[in-house]
């Protein structure tokens, strides 16, 4: 099952988008403009990004409207003329979009999305597009690192209660599933996106019963083979011994205890002790789950130290991308009325013109990307696909499992040194000769015109 964002009002924008749009309107500037959405630099310990959020972005573009009460509010600010407000009352996005498909990898400076539309339309949708794409790219990339660190063990999303709002909670479940997460505790995400849901019990459940083992038995009586017992409420090893008792009782009823969960203490050492206990007691197949402060760094360290953990419940640090909660994402004008344009600000120069990215592979591994002009044809596979024409999505939304498989296939081809958890090596991204030449030409023209230098 798939869904999209609600029918957002076009009011989901920054004020300066509207003030610029009013000037465009007054000056009769309705020619097509191309804006490029990209990330300038990698956050710490990142060497790649995952395209995510495109479905939601396209849904926003299709549904963006100014409602009558929006127009009334804008009128009350005293900033806007009545003729411009009348224009906004009939606003529809009518442009085209090319984008890197969701689940595909992309790298810094590469456009993940480009919008071509009348400049007023392309300007007004900037804020929402950055917001939608930034959040899901950041979260998908974070989750992929946790999955990679787990070395084949399951990662379950426990982050909903501490994400930065409901939208973020839904986004981490969706983006995380694309990036290889096994399940989520978020029931709404399970319903809407068709993601497997998972969960155990809280310490309050245990303490509400007169004894720990009675709580275990009551839960197992209802949930049978799906039962996972939280064993650290009072003492982890004592809880594990009671779990063995329940496991034997269940076996006598031709049922099986699925697992136990650790949530406190030195979980690496405790997991080894619990596993030894289970082996001694003849129940070695009980799975051990762990939760509590995990991210890719703690997961990696736990496994290297020999933790006997089969799956990780990852919450806060993943759900807010705690170590790198943002990326330097930008949406910049690169062409207006067939004229390539650029920004020369120090450290923030832009690549001119509508673009394409070609990806080359060697021996089954990603080898090199080349950013080119849109009309070029180079060696490798073009990444940017036409996803919207005349304000309408070209295709129906892709099933999440298709996007998930696209990511899995791409990530398998990414060199290990690029996907490293710490200090990844940079992936090779070049610029085509034609784009380089045009970049140089436009730069010289801008310098001559705006700075009076030859």
Automatic annotation (TrEMBL):
Family matches, as InterPro entries: Aldolase_TIM, N/Namide_PRibTrfase, NAPRTase_C, NAPRTase_N, Nic_PRibTrfase-Fam, Nic_PRibTrfase_pncB, Nicotinate_pribotase-like_C
Nicotinate/nicotinamide phosphoribosyltransferase domain: residues covered: 155-324
Keywords: Glycosyltransferase, Ligase, Phosphoprotein, Pyridine nucleotide biosynthesis, Transferase
EC number(s) recorded for this UniProt protein: 6.3.4.21
Pfam families from the UniProt entry: NAPRTase (PF04095), NAPRTase_C (PF17956), NAPRTase_N (PF17767)
Modifications after synthesis and translation: Transiently phosphorylated on a His residue during the reaction cycle. Phosphorylation strongly increases the affinity for substrates and increases the rate of nicotinate D-ribonucleotide production. Dephosphorylation regenerates the low-affinity form of the enzyme, leading to product release.
MF terms (GO), sorted A to Z: nicotinamide phosphoribosyltransferase activity; nicotinate phosphoribosyltransferase activity
GO cellular component labels: cytosol
Coiled coil: none
Pathway noted in the entry: Cofactor biosynthesis; NAD(+) biosynthesis; nicotinate D-ribonucleotide from nicotinate: step 1/1
GO biological process: NAD+ biosynthetic process via the salvage pathway
Domain Nicotinate phosphoribosyltransferase C-terminal: 381-438
Function of the molecule: Catalyzes the first step in the biosynthesis of NAD from nicotinic acid, the ATP-dependent synthesis of beta-nicotinate D-ribonucleotide from nicotinate and 5-phospho-D-ribose 1-phosphate.
NCBIfam families listed in its UniProt record: NAPRTase_put (TIGR01513), PRK09243.1-3 (NF006696), PRK12484.1 (NF009131)
This protein's name: Nicotinate phosphoribosyltransferase
């Amino acid at each position: 099952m798939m869904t999209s964002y609600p029918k957002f009002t076009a009011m989901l924008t920054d004020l300066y988008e509207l003030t610029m749009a009013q000037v465009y309107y007054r000056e009769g500037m309705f020619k097509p403009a191309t804006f490029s959405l990209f990330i300038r630099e990698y956050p710490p310990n990142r060497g790649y990004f995952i395209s995510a959020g495109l479905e939601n972005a396209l849904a926003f573009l299709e549904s963006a409207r100014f409602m009558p009460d929006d127009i009334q509010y804008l009128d009350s600010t005293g900033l806007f003329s009545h003729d411009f407000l009348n224009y906004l009352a009939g606003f529809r996005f009518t442009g085209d979009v090319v984008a890197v498909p969701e689940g595909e990898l992309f790298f810094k400076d590469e456009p993940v999305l480009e919008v071509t539309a009348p400049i007023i339309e392309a300007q007004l949708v900037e804020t929402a597009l950055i917001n939608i794409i930034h959040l899901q790219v950041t979260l998908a990339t974070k989750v992929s690192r946790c999955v990679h660190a787990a070395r084949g063990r399951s990662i379950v999303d426990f982050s909903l209660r501490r994400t930065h709002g409901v939208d973020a909670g839904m986004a981490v479940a969706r983006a995380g599933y694309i990036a290889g997460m096994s399940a989520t505790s978020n029931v709404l995400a399970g319903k809407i996106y068709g993601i497997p849901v998972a969960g155990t019990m809280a310490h309050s459940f245990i303490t509400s019963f007169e004894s720990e083992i009675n709580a275990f038995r009551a839960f197992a009586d209802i949930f049978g083979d799906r039962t996972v017992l939280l064993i650290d409420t009072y003492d982890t090893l004592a809880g594990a011994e009671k779990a063995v008792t329940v496991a034997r009782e269940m076996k006598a009823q031709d049922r099986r205890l699925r697992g136990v969960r650790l949530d406190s203490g030195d979980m690496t050492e405790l997991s080894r002790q619990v596993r030894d206990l289970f082996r001694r007691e003849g129940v070695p197949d009980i799975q051990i789950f762990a939760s509590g402060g995990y991210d890719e760094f703690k997961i990696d360290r736990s496994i290297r130290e020999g933790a006997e953990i089969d799956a990780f419940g990852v919450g806060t640090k993943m759900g807010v991308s705690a170590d790198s909660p943002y990326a330097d994402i930008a949406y910049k004008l690169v062409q207006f009325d067939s004229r390539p344009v650029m920004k020369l600000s120090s450290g923030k120069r832009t690549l001119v013109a509508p673009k394409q990215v070609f990806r080359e592979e060697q021996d089954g591994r990603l080898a090199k990307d080349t950013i080119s002009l849109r009309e070029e044809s180079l060696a490798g596979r073009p990444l940017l696909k036409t996803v919207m024409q005349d304000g309408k999505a070209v295709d129906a939304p892709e099933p999440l499992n298709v996007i998930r498989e696209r990511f899995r296939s791409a990530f398998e081809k990414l060199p290990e040194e690029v996907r490293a958890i710490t200090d990844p090596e940079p992936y090779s991204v070049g610029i085509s000769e034609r784009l380089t030449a045009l970049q140089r030409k436009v730069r010289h023209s801008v310098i001559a015109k705006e700075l009076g230098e030859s």
